[in-house]
Amino acid sequence: MEIQAIIDGIFDAGQQEIASIQNRSKSQVKAIRDQAEAEANEQKIRILKDGRIRMNRSKAVILQRAAMQALQMHANARQSLIIMVLNSSEEVIKQIRTQPNYLAILQKLIKDAILAIIPSLIRDQKIILHLDERDVEIVEAMEIPEKNRVEMKFDLNCSGGCEAHSEDGLVRVLNTFESRFERALPKIQQDLSVFFEEKTLSS
Fold it and tell me: Is residue 17 predicted with pLDDT exceeding 60?
């Protein structure tokens, strides 16, 4: 009986130990599973957060590129309008000789050129006035200031106007439509740019 009791005691103790080990194993398995799930959730949150950051960054880059493209398209359109206006102006200049007031315009251009060059002349020095040969008839019938000091040469090819220089060539005045347009071009382009910009903002 004593031996059986000892055996039974050992068996019971073994069963208890087995149960204890099983309980500890279950607890450890649960702890490991809970920790794995927590780490997986943290990683999921981190991945989602990183994805949102990347998405926001990509969105910002796309918006910035779109804004730059819009600005470039706007600038290109404005420049095209400016070029169109300038080309139209050049066509008008080429036809200026056919206008009824061309005689008065040419007379003023010649007068301005002569009066501009006179202060730079030395005594008895002549003014050489270059004109387009298409203007011969109207110029010969025109009243020209300091005509006795002016030597006319019809050797220009221009839309109208004249070029004047001193006899020694040291002083020169360019007063053709082309030269005046070229001098005014930077200011014209600036004014047109402002004009079209204001038109765009108000539309």
Answer: no
The CA-CA-CA angle for residues 127, 128, 131, to 5°, reads: 130
DSSP characters for 91-154?
HHHHTGGGSTTHHHHHHHHHHHHHHHHGGGPPTT--EEEEEEGGGHHHHHTS--TTGGGEEEEE
Beta pairing class for 127-132 and 150-156: parallel
Q: How far apart are CA 21 and CA 16, in angstroms?
A: 8
* pTM: predicted TM-score of the whole model, two decimal places: 0.58
**Rounded Cα–Cα distance for residues 195 and 185 (Å):** 15
Host H or E run for residue 158: none
84-110 average pLDDT score: 86
Q: What is the mean pLDDT of the chain?
A: 79
Among the listed residues 73, 92, 95, the one whose alpha carbon sits nearest the alpha carbon of residue 84: 92
DSSP lists the bridge partners of residue 165 as 128, 172
Instruction: Return the domain boundaries, the chain.
Output: 1-94, 99-184
Handedness of CA 182, 183, 184, 188 (dihedral sign): positive
What is the CATH T-level fold of the domain 99-184, as seen in this structure? hypothetical protein PF0899 fold (3.30.2320)
